[in-house]
Amino acid sequence: MAKIINIQPITRIEGHASIHIQLNDQGNVQETKVAFKSLRGFEKFVEGKPAEELPRIVSRICGICPWMHHIASNKAVDACFKVTVPPAGNLLRELMLTISHIEDKLLHFFFLAGADFFMGPECDYSVRNILGLVKANPELAGKVIKMRHKAKMILDRFSKKTIHPIAGVPGGFIKPLSIEDRKTFLDNLTELLDFALFALGYAKKEVFPKFEESYPGLGEITTGFIGMVDNKGALNLYDGNIRLMKPDGSYKEFCPDEYLDHLAEKVVPFSYGKFPYAKSWGEGFSMDLDAPKGIYRSNTLARINVADKLATPRAQAELEEFRDKYGRPAQSTLLYHYARLIEEVYTCERAIEILKDPRIINPKVRTKVEPCAGRGVGCVEAPRGTLIHDYSTDENGLITRVNLIVGTTHNLAPINLSVDRAARDLIKNGIYDDTILNKIEMAVRAYDP
Amino acid sequence: MPIKLAGESLNACSGCEISILDMGDKLLTLLEFVSIVHLPLLMDSKHGVRKNNSQTIKLPKADVGLISGNIKTKENLELACAMRDSCDLIIAFGTCATHGGIPALANSYHNDDILGHCFNTLGTDKVDSFPSDIVPELMDACYALDEHIRVDFSLPGCPPHPDHIFRALQSIEKNESFSLPEKSVCDNCPASRDGKGQVKVLKRALELPQWRVYDDTKEGFECFLEQGFLCMGPVTRDGCGGDTEQARCIMAQMPCRGCYGPVKNGGNQRLAMLNALVSNGIDISSLPETVSMLRFSGGHGFLHPLPGTKESE
């Protein structure tokens, strides 16, 4: 009998979303929709505000990745005001962004998505979470909580405020790094790198093998990918060109300022979040599971697919091992988790590299800014993908127009496709249970807790 | 017996929930006396069933309900009411819930303006109609929680400091009273003040206020307002530094923007700030705009669309 299955809300993700699966008379999946239910209107309500205030306002788009919005916003304002940030200011911003990535990946993998793998999707829902993990494996959970806190506290102590930060300012950074702080951070990050390597090793043994055994092809789709790279083709989270890769692995690279030539956004009736697609491929937009059009993905797997390499040694070795096994571009949805832990190693190594850069303790961290008319595109890699802030200002430096493409939104169409794939594969003849429904949610959690 | 805790997030960013996790080791202590029975960000409890677009929300019974976010959709409102029904005590958790928070800046516009703008930005393919299938219907404004349900306790902050979250829950478990002092950020600010300043015009935040080292042991600074920078400290509730630290933005050499909301509930941060500036002889026409003074507290009808404009039918 025809019916609709609602999974509401999707849990252990950031944001507000639900899944609606329409079954036909035979009890098989006819249509699925993943609805994104929040509309706050940042692009409208920041109009008329002084541009220099925006980095302190738009961070509230996301309480999980506020640093990325904060820094993308600072970069957009810098460009509007035509100011060049001194090297130490850029390095400090990149350091904060990188440490924020370190903390986020631990949150995503261990606190949110991990319980599915550590506890199994069959286990009772009431313990399938970080709190259950605390009881089931106190040693691991205790370590994870401690490590995430360590990363968070570097940000907190140095920048004073880490959820909705203030330390990035137009023209640079709020204060220089002292030699003592630099040493403490290096010690902490060395510990975090050790933990990142442990976590990846542990997951390669205990978690990733389960992907093939327990969840073959879960939410698997074939798409293109997006991510930022430096001028040598290596992944860069803070600055660089955007690389947009087709499903066959061919790609085009462009400066973030040119994003409108390559990307467009589609309004769909069941979502307040818009669905970006690759306009420059010239094939339009379609979420037809058998013949998707214009669909590309962002976030960890996308970044390690588009990058030729990772510019740090341990992470590069891990990437090579990954590519030997899964090829490039790797398409399997659950591999997002594998890519996440490779990126965890990369971000720890990169943070150490930044701290060892002699320029980082230079006291000149900020260039004086004067408000003026201009347009600026600020782009960084947020945990969930390429984040674009595009601002225009009037001659007083007040905001006249804002366009935002938020990391998560690149994946809204792919999430719909992956959920559709998982639902069609798992629900047959009207038979489903909580375990199956949780597996369908796992297709979302690969992308977007 | 541990107290049962339920949490829901309405129109918000999840930062308040992340602040719970930012307790670090204290989180493990918290879990000894708090049993979390519902918190969608961290665990798999669902709301219940939805039929023909109307929803029956079923939530587990709890002693305390933490609600973050303001009320912007009909679904937010249904959830807030369901939480009220299922929890003995409701804590408005974070400034969005207590005063509207940043998303309530949208209250300066009609929904049509917001929809028309957000679904017509550069690079968005043209559409004839806005999303309306499955997505929840929008309310006419962002409401603070107490505009729609009874709230037992307010824990402001963007986000609330982990120290306060811990202490609030601990005092409930011990059946003790808990309150945040009704003091302003200025009451606890280490800046030196000369009294009424010479400043007539305010500067924008395009440079940092001066910070100086007095001698080997003491760093310090003059009041940011006396240096000519807008600082919302006088009209903002203190507490963002938690139990042991002073106001966070100020200690980072950045003027306060008001994230803990007005000093007393019901206060209007913009009106109070403009009064303070005027009484100090500052020319308020030198400010580029004043809506931002309500960026954290635009609920309770303090921000609304310009008179004479109206929502289309």
User: What string gives the helices and strands of chain A in order?
Assistant: EEEHHHHHHHEEHHEEEHEEEHHHEEEHHH
Largest sheet of chain A: 4 strands, mixed
pLDDT average of chain A, as an integer? 95
Q: What is the helical fraction of chain A, as a range of percent?
A: 40-55%
Given as residue ranges, the uncertain stretches of chain A (5+ residues, pLDDT < 50) are none
What distance separates the N and C termini of chain A?
Answer: 33 Å
The structure class of chain A reads alpha+beta
**What is the C-alpha radius of gyration of chain B, as a whole number of Å?**
21 Å
- Biggest protein-protein interface? A-B, 95 and 82 residues
What is the rounded Rg of chain A? 21 Å
Descriptive labels:
heterodimer, A: about 450 residues, alpha+beta, 4-stranded mixed beta sheet, 3-stranded antiparallel beta sheet, 16 helices, about 15% strand, B: about 325 residues, alpha/beta, 5-stranded parallel beta sheet, two-stranded antiparallel sheet
Structure description:
The complex is a heterodimer of chains A (449) and B (313). By secondary structure, chain A is α+β, with helices and mostly antiparallel strands. In chain A, 44% of the residues lie in helices and 16% in strands. Chain A is built from 16 helices and 14 strands. In chain A, helix 4 packs antiparallel against helix 13, helix 11 packs across helix 13 and helix 12 packs antiparallel against helix 13. The mean pLDDT of chain A is 95. By secondary structure, chain B is of the alpha/beta class. In chain B, 22% of the residues lie in helices and 16% in strands. Chain B contains eight helices and eleven strands. In chain B, a hairpin with a 5-residue loop joins strand 10 and strand 11. Chain B is globular and about 60 Å long. The model of chain B has no long low-confidence stretch (mean pLDDT 91). Chains A and B meet through strand 3, helix 1, helix 4, helix 6 and helix 7 of A and helix 1, helix 2, strand 3, helix 5 and helix 7 of B.
